[in-house]
Fold:
Amino acid sequence: MKIVLALGGNALQSDPKDKTAEAQLNTCKETAKSIVDLIEEGHEISIVHGNGPQVGQIVACTETAYKADNSNVLFPFDVCGSFSQGYIGYHLQNAISEELKKRNINKSVGTVVTQVLVDKNDKGFQNPTKPIGSFYSKEEAEKLQKEKGYIMKEDAGRGYRRVVASPKPIDVIEKDLIKNLVASGAVVVSCGGGGIPVVQENNTIKGVAAVIDKDFAAEKLAEILDADVLLILTAVDRVCVNFNKPDQKSLEVMTLEEVDRYIEEGQFAPGSMLPKVEACKKFAQFKEDKTAIIASLSKAKEALKGLSGTKIVK
Ligand SMILES: Nc1ncnc2c1ncn2[C@@H]1O[C@H](COP(=O)(O)OP(=O)(O)O)[C@@H](O)[C@H]1O
Ligand SMILES: NC(=O)OP(=O)(O)O
Structure:
């Protein structure tokens, strides 16, 4: 089967005490085992990853460096997004190549720096929803809001984070290149962090300050590649209702009617579980026989067999 895998940026930095590059590489190595399991079973895999924590860390680095060495180099948000594609793509392609080599599978693996077209009038620019960077206490968040002018919001019971604009993806600029690479048999990492957001201006495209949700970008790529499965991998085994409450219940299957009802009830946190569920709904509606699943990073194989994860069905 043709599968688009979406890997969570938070899930790739899953240890709250260790956000180092080394820890992320170790998580990528573990994740690579699940990915190569699928390749070994004969599936064609394309990969999209998130960048929420990482792009926030990169933005914080450039802001700190700007003040520290007076270099006058303050990298804009879109450039920080491109850095995050290099950082995470490098770790993923390194980890996947190594795992393929260990199992004597001969396949090329590479990352495409990807620009994704958004509408400059998207309402996402007026209402920032995408959490980036680290988690803070309420007091720390209020201080950052005051001192740096950041917009801070609570993120799914995990603490406060900076939020930025998150417009919806319209098209993938490098889609023909990605299609050709996938058709050649390569494992392609693309649309990282949802893609670098660009808008059309006259005859040119121009980067903008935003972070596209990688779940929506992965759904768009799954449509472009006419994938059979959109498999969104994150830090929880299944989608839940009454998440983090005493009556929490995990779901094996969700119909589109249930998706709508649960969204209406506010069961899915904006900026975390909500976009995953919405992206799955869109893919399930795209054409007949399309499968959308949300599962944990370590259980991709089980999820495809219906033994783990939450399947969104028509
Ligand atoms: N209804 C829900 N069911 C399961 N998890 C939820 C729910 N609502 C919020 N979450 C949280 O959303 C997280 C996934 O979102 P996020 O961390 O943004 O994903 P990613 O791994 O793609 O970066 C889960 O790990 C969980 O903490
Ligand atoms: N860009 C993006 O959706 O990142 P996360 O997966 O880290 O939220």
Q: What stands out?
A: The mean pLDDT is 95. The longest strand covers residues 130-136. Residues 33 and 99 are 7 Å apart (CA to CA).
